Amino acid sequence: MKEEIKEQFNFIDKIKSINEGKNLKYNIFTMGCQLNENDSEKIAGMLEKMGYTVTNNVNQADIAIFNTCCVRENAEDKLFGKIGEMKKLKERNGTIIAIGGCMMQEKHIVEKLHNSYPYVDIIFGTHTMHKLPEDIFKVLENRRKVEDIINIDGEIYEGLPIKRTDNSKASVTIMYGCNNFCTYCIVPYVRGRERSRKKEDILNEIKQLAEEGYKEITLLGQNVNSYNGGENYGFAELLRDVNKIDKIEKIRFISPHPKDFSIDVINAIKDCEKVSKIIHLPLQSGSSNVLKKMNRHYTKEQYLELVEKMKKLIPNVVFSTDIIVGFPEETEEDFKDTLDVVKKVEFEQVFMFIYSRRVGTPADRMENQIPEEIKHERFNRLKELVESQIESNNKKYIGTIQKILVEGKSKNNSNMLTGRTDSNKVVVFEGNDELINTTINVKILSQHMWYLKGEIIDS
Ligand code: 5AD
Ligand code: SF4
User: Fold this and answer.
1) Domain range spanning residue 78?
2) Is the CB–ligand 1 distance for residue 355 below 6 Å?
3) How close is the Cα of 251 to the center of ligand 1, in Å?
4) For residue 255, how far is its CA from the centre of ligand 2 (angstroms)?
5) What is the pLDDT of residues 46-91, one digit of tens each?
6) Cβ neighbours of residue 362 under 8 Å, at least 6 residues apart?
7) Which runs of consecutive H residues, i.e. helices, occur in 214-294?
8) Fewer Cβ neighbours under 10 Å: the N or C end of the chain?
9) What is the CATH number of the domain that holds 98?
10) How many angstroms separate the alpha carbon of residue 187 from the centre of ligand 1?
11) Domain CATH code at residue 403
12) Is 163 contained in some domain?
C-alpha cells in the first residue's frame, strides 16, 4: 500500500476515536455515471471506517457528501439547488458539507461555491478523493474550510476501503481518465489522461468479490477497450482472465469506444461464455459530418460495418448506445442519418441526450449552435422511434426462457423479485426471497416497455 494511503488510514483512526460513541450518520448524493457511483462506494467505505453509518435522509446526516457530475448542464442547477437547501440544515445541526467529483475540477463552479455558498466545508476534486479522511479531520479539529483540488492526473491508489451498494453485482473500475477529446465532452478536462490499473490489482479485486458471493462484475472506464495492462496485455486479455475466475457468472463492461474495437476484443467477447452479449457501442451521431466535428474517428459506414462484423462473429449479439441530438451545425439531413442508423441497428436500449454546451470544450466555441426548440423536436422524434423499436423488440422475448441472476426485490413492488436478462432487460417475477443472488430460469410472459414480466420455471 502506498504511503499516501497509509497516512489516510491514520486520519481514519483519529476520526474514529473523535466520533466514538456519538452514533454519527452520513449521506451521499451521487450524480452521473457508474464511475461516480463506484467512487461513492469508496467514499462510503472510508466514512464507515471513520465510525459514521449511512442514512438516506440528509436531514439526519452529520456529514453530507455531494459527488458531482458535469457531463451535462442540468446537473449544475440541481447541485446548486441542493446546496442552497443545506444552508438551514448547517445552521441548525452543524452538518459538515463536502462537495467533490467532476464538477469541482471546473474553475467557474468552485468560484460560484466560494461566492454564494460560503458555508460549504470541503471541496475536493477527482484526483484527491482518497484524501477525504485528512480533509474531514482538518474540519473536525480546526473547524477550518478545506479545498483540495489538483489539476494534474491523480495517481491510482489501491487499498481504499469500499462499501458496496449491491450484494450480487459489483462494479470494478479498470481505468481512469480519457484521451479522446470528443469535442462536446468535458470528461478529459476533469478526469485527466488515461491511466490503467494493474491487471493483478483488478483480478485480485474480482477474485475477492467472487469469494464474497458477488456473481456479476461490470468493468468500468471512460474507454475500457483502450485498457493498457502492459506489454501484450489489453482489454481482450483482461476479459479472458476475468472469464476464468470461479463463481463469477456474468461480466459486463462500459463504455468502449467504437474506434478501439479490435478483432482481439471481438474474439474475446465471442469466446468468453460469461461475457454478456449486449455491447454498449456509443454512436453519438449517425452523420459522418457530425462525427467528424465531434472528433469521433469513425464514419457512419464504419460504425455500421463494425456492427455487422460483430453480428457475424458473435452469435446473438445485440447493442445499446448513447446518442446526442442537436450538436452544433447538425442539419436535418444529419439528424436523419442518426435515425437511419437507429433503424438499421435496432438497439436494445438507447440513452438519448440533448447536446449541452460545456465551458472549455471546442464544441462550445462552434458557431451555429442549434436552437433549443429544434433540439427538443429532434429529441422527441428520436424518442418516438426508439420507443416503437423497443416495444416491438420486447415482443420477441415473450415466450422465451431467460437465465436470470436474481438481484433483489422489485423497487416498485416488494412482492416481486427482479433481475436482468443477458441483454440487460429488467425482468420482474414472483418468487421467494431465498432466491436472491441465485441464477434461475424465467419464462417471459408480457412486455411493459421498460421491463418484462415473467414466471419462474424451475429453480
Ligand atoms: N451534451 C450532451 N451529452 C453529452 N454526453 C457527453 N457530453 C455531452 C454533452 N456535452 C453524453 C455522451 C456520452 C454520455 C455519457 O453522455 O453521449 O456517451
Ligand atoms: Fe467523453 Fe469521448 Fe472520452 Fe467518452 S470517449 S469520456 S465521450 S471524450
Assistant:
1) 2-148
2) yes
3) 24
4) 9
5) 999 999 999 999 999 999 999 999 998 888 889 999 999 999 999 9
6) 181, 183, 295
7) 235-243, 263-271, 288-294
8) N
9) 3.40.50.12160
10) 9
11) 2.40.50.140
12) no
